[in-house]
Amino acid sequence: MLVTDIEYITKSKAKIYIDETCRFVLTKREIDQYKLCVDINIDQAILDEILSECILVKAKKKVMDLLVSSDRTETELRRRLKFSDFSDDIVDLAIDYVKQYNYIDNKRYIENYMAYRSEGKSIQMIKYELRQKGLPEALTREVLEAHEHNDIRNINKYINKKYGTPPIILANEKQKVINYLLRKGYEYNDIVDCVRNFETNGN
After folding, report:
1. Sheet harboring 13-18: ordered strands across?
2. Is residue 34 classed as helix, strand or coil in its secondary structure?
3. pLDDT given at position 189
4. Distance set, CA 131 to CA 122, 124, 141, 154 (Å)
5. Which of 17, 112, 145, 163 could form a disulfide with 5 if both were Cys (CB 3.0 to 4.6 A apart)?
6. Phi-psi region at 124: left, alpha or beta (left = phi > 0; alpha = psi -120 to 50)
7. Model pLDDT, residue 165
8. 156-193 residues labelled b (16+ CB within 10 A) or e (exposed)
9. CB 86 within 8 A of CB 48
């Protein structure tokens, strides 16, 4: 295997290309330690040592740091590791490492999301955001069914907070309210019913 390029991305860090493919990122100290330079041949034993002693250690630290700062899904962790130039095989090993300690728990993630980050959001918006995070839809439905989340209550809360009393919404404001709530994922009929009820009863 041939080192075909060493591309410095900072003064102390570089992408290492082996056989024209970027394999990993090393510090200048590590590059000097393994005496890497362009056009030098690297045998499998040295490559394996770099991957296990340098790259995998960094990937494990990266994924642990991410989990310490915030609970994350496996999909989010994979995206962040890939963005940091870790190869697929290293990403797999780093994810397996945190999985064995149950640091990734999709059900716990959804429950925490519902407890701390779902305020004011529609069911459809919640499902969309969790789907974007790579969470299984069946598990999301299961947790949502056990959680007291009410779109009608949220719509009424928004309207009351915005308009208070007396229960009057000007005609030119009404469509703005409807459009805003539609963008938040609420159902049109639910919105219209809540607006009508607010105008009639004030709640």
Report:
1. 3-10, 13-18, 21-27
2. coil
3. 94
4. 14, 10, 11, 21
5. 17
6. alpha
7. 66
8. bebbeeebeeeeebeeeeeeebbeebeebbbbeebbee
9. no
Give the pair of three-digit tokens for residue 123. Answer: 């069911």
CB 169 within 8 A of CB 195: yes
What tokens were used for 73? 């899904």
Collect all residues with Cβ–Cβ distance below 8 Å to 3 and sequence separation of at least 6: 16, 17, 18, 36, 37, 38, 39, 40, 41, 42
Answer for the pair 114, 126: CB distance below 8 angstroms, yes or no.
Answer: yes
Residue owning tokens 């590059």: 31
Q: How far is CA 45 from the centre of its chain?
A: 36
Q: What is the pLDDT of residue 202?
A: 58
Q: Determine the Cα–Cα distance for residues 1 and 17; give it in Å rounded to an integer.
A: 10
pLDDT at position 168 = 61
Residues of the chain where predicted confidence (pLDDT) is lower than 70: 165-170, 202-203
User: What residue type is 88 in one-letter code?
Assistant: D
Show the DSSP H helices in the chain as ranges.
28-33, 44-50, 56-69, 74-83, 88-99, 106-116, 123-132, 137-146, 151-163, 171-183, 188-201
Residue type, 108: R
